[in-house]
Amino acid sequence: MADESLFDFLHMEIVSHIYKEQQSSKGEMDNKDRAVCVSVLESMGFRVGQGLIERLTRDSPSFKDELDVMKFVCKDFWTKVFRRQVDNLRTNHQGTYVLQDNKFSLLTQLSSGKQYLDQAPKYLAFSCGVVRGALSNLGMDSVVTAEVSVMPSCKFQVVVQKL
Amino acid sequence: MADESLFDFLHMEIVSHIYKEQQSSKGEMDNKDRAVCVSVLESMGFRVGQGLIERLTRDSPSFKDELDVMKFVCKDFWTKVFRRQVDNLRTNHQGTYVLQDNKFSLLTQLSSGKQYLDQAPKYLAFSCGVVRGALSNLGMDSVVTAEVSVMPSCKFQVVVQKL
């Protein structure tokens, strides 16, 4: 479907724009520059996630607990944003959740060899922000990170910040 | 649908990011700065349009002439990207086309009063690029501009560049 590719293509453009602009102002990029890029993409994702979850939960009943929220994110939210459900959700019941997507939509366009493994974080920052933004609007402050060991499978770790 | 809003939200974020980054490096923005922003957004759109049309026309028969291409863009392409068909297509049969969309998807989120009319170009640059990119991949080099007189209606003018 082209409307799905629309988002994918636009996402690619943004990633490349933000890295290019950082590089052109600095010459060579070091880890700090890369962190700036990740942070810009993450904040964009945060605001997009907030907007999306607001629309999606307009007609939803309220959630009974944290796990209930996470299940909604893994099913309904994930399907709308990343076009499939999370394959596996694990939790230690102490505020840490691991969401595994075996075929993460924003990685499927990249080659699945090991060659581009080090490029993966670029393409995950926005999505981490989307998840954090959605959770934040549902009342859960969290830290969201992502990890890829074999493309295009991806693990998101959500650590809920207790007040 | 959230997957549609996904693109809309992301588009909003990009527009705001690009204007902010230009402003922060220059302080006050003048016309030249605004032109830089428009041009960055337009080139992003161009590449996205190229990618999209490539997918969309994969199974299409070839087109018999310029008008045939324009009709495809107004119907199939427009529906996939902007979620409706163009309402009106006019041409002078000398390479100039006017595509009118009475409810342009990227403007429907803005208030329809006159208040934000001067903000409209910000939100049209990317789309002009998308159209130009699509046409370019179908072998038509063109200049695409957009004009809004009453929100959320929008007129795109395509002037085909003859070799």
From TrEMBL, chains A, B:
Organism domain of life: Eukaryota
UniProt keyword Coiled coil, yes or no: no
InterPro entries linked to this entry: NO_sig/Golgi_transp_ligand-bd, TRAPP_component, TRAPPC6/Trs33
Gene Ontology biological process terms from the UniProt entry: endoplasmic reticulum to Golgi vesicle-mediated transport; nervous system development
Gene Ontology CC annotations of this record: cis-Golgi network; endoplasmic reticulum; trans-Golgi network; TRAPP complex
Record flagged with keyword Coiled coil: no
Record's subcellular location: Endoplasmic reticulum; Golgi apparatus, cis-Golgi network
Keywords: Endoplasmic reticulum, Golgi apparatus, Neurogenesis
SUPFAM superfamilies reported for this sequence: Ligand-binding domain in the NO signalling and Golgi transport
Signal peptide start and end residues: none
PANTHER family for the chain: TRAFFICKING PROTEIN PARTICLE COMPLEX 6B-LIKE, TRAFFICKING PROTEIN PARTICLE COMPLEX SUBUNIT 6B
Homology family: Belongs to the TRAPP small subunits family. BET3 subfamily.
Function text: Component of a transport protein particle (TRAPP) complex that may function in specific stages of inter-organelle traffic. Specifically involved in the early development of neural circuitry, likely by controlling the frequency and amplitude of intracellular calcium transients implicated in the regulation of neuron differentiation and survival.
Protein known as: Trafficking protein particle complex subunit 6B
Native source organism of the sequence: Cottoperca gobio
Taxon lineage: Eukaryota, Metazoa, Chordata, Craniata, Vertebrata
Gene from which the chain derives: trappc6bl
